[in-house]
Amino acid sequence: MARNTATRDRHRAYIARTKPPCAICGDEIDYELPYLDPKEFVVDHILPLAKGGSDELGNKQPAHRSCNRAKSDKTEDQMASERAVRTFVTDRVWT
């Protein structure tokens, strides 16, 4: 299904209006960065379209390009379990 570019642009402008931080990493977004910069503003689908998410405003959030690419088509639950798997605890003391 083709997405409507006018709707996409309207949603993008609505989200950017208040300049919120990245919903994935929580860091500030520089809304003036050029296209393809890893830290530029992009719109992320909370529930990815590939997983049945809608292209409605309520399913969109601000993100850095690099965060959005790392998230790919994962859900929030998949991202959380991935972070949990990468947590390492050790008693080793490095000298």
Sequence-ordered SSE layout with sheet pairings:
Elements lengths: L4 H12 L24 E5 L14 E5 H7 L4 H10 L10
Antiparallel strand pairs: 1-2
Offer a few descriptive terms.
two-stranded antiparallel ribbon, 3 helices, 95 residues, globular
What is the mean pLDDT?
A: 90
Query: Beta-strand level of the residues, as a percent range?
Result: 5-15%
Which structural class fits the helix and strand makeup?
Answer: alpha+beta
Estimate the global geometry from the Cα principal axes: globular
Number of strands: 2
The strand line-up of the biggest sheet is: 1-2
Estimated radius of gyration: 16 Å
* Contiguous helical run count: 3
H and E string: HEEHH
Largest sheet: 2 strands, antiparallel
Q: Which range best describes the helical content: under 10%, 10-25%, 25-40%, 40-55%, 55-70% or over 70%?
A: 25-40%
What ranges have pLDDT less than 50 throughout 5 or more consecutive residues? none
Taking the alpha carbons of the first and last residues, their distance comes to 57 Å
